[in-house]
Amino acid sequence: MKQYKIALLPGDGIGPEIMKEAVKVLKLVQERNPVAFELNEVPFGAVAYFATGDAFPEATKLACDQADAVLKGTIGLSHEESKKIPVDKQPERGALLPLRKRLNTYANFRPVYLPKELAHFSPLRPEVVGEGIDLMIIRELVGGLYFGQKERGIKNGKRFVNEMLEYDEDQIRQILIVGFETAKKRRKLLHNIHKSNVLLSSVLWNEILEEVAPSYPEVEVRHMLVDAAATALCLNPCQFDVMVMENMFGDILSDQGGGILGSLGLMPSACMGPNRKAYYEPSHGSAPDIAGQGIANPYSMIGSVAMMLDMSFGLTEEAQNLWGAMKSVFAAGFTTPDLKRGGDKLISTAAFGDKVLEALAKSPKPKV
Ligand code: NAD
Ligand code: IPM
Ligand code: MN
What we know:
Rossmann fold, 2 domains, manganese, single chain, binds manganese (II) ion, two-stranded antiparallel ribbon
């Protein structure tokens, strides 16, 4: 029996609500497979700040270091509530970015997936969605504009700010390799998303790409400027398979991915570091506008569990069962309110979780 330690970071807003459903799923997976999960729930985000003065307390750092994988909910407060916390201690700068840096999770996988049967969730016309949307955004996660030098001050009597988009060649190469390796396992098509017509960082990025590409002769590379890519995602998302890009570009385009699916609640993610040290989280935020109402869509969180089962624990078949279970709940016409279209039966976060459990329990157990 394999034993895995998982640090659970429910966080703020809808985080604890959707994490509850993830834990229910983990307990069922444990019953169905020769694995034992040791779950260690620790405070992270604004909730941790208000309890301890630190959004990423030492005990949480230790739990993350010791875990085989980290499962995170969502962090962050509304625009107004955020003002109660000093800028540098806010959960984004004080917890999430330090977590990414600490685990060095440089490769963020954000699948944008909508099978044909669920195409009605997309705001795009059926002929645009075609056979379904299935692309993978690979976002560099520990460099670029987010982690460059920053300064704020007064120059010539005016307030000014300077923040740098910094990369060295190794950082670029390692994420491009992830892009090529992922493309190799999928449709062998890699879209390189950049802004080399303006940004020097993209010029270096593309130079490194030319150096890496010859090792992957089977992968076709297509270049697209990031602004054009934003339009192309709406007009013809099916042209894409794997897209690789800088941190900030990936932040923005992956939320657009949620837009073309119909909800950010359909956006799970995996954040991988060296030696497969990883953490998993929904791509979206703490949704303060719906928090506490029990109506958040837990697909993004349960999907993150599926990614963890596959990528951290090698439980690939059970991960497939879990995706299938979630799909079957939607296919039976049940949805949370974010996805409601005429005729759907509205259910709560917890009811969605229960239905996923029912469906998973019915799928054949993976062979040992
Ligand atoms: P958001 O992603 O929280 O919400 C945007 C919209 O999507 C809202 O209308 C929300 O209700 C909806 N939504 C998001 N997830 C949903 C789900 N699972 N089910 C149903 N609807 C869902 O973005 P925001 O409002 O711009 O940010 C809120 C806070 O979250 C901010 O403090 C931000 O910094 C933080 N944030 C955190 C993370 C993270 O933890 N990784 C990611 C993004 C934003
Ligand atoms: C995300 C979020 C974070 C980011 C914020 C909360 C720091 O928007 O994970 O996409 O910008 O990376
Ligand atoms: Mn984001």
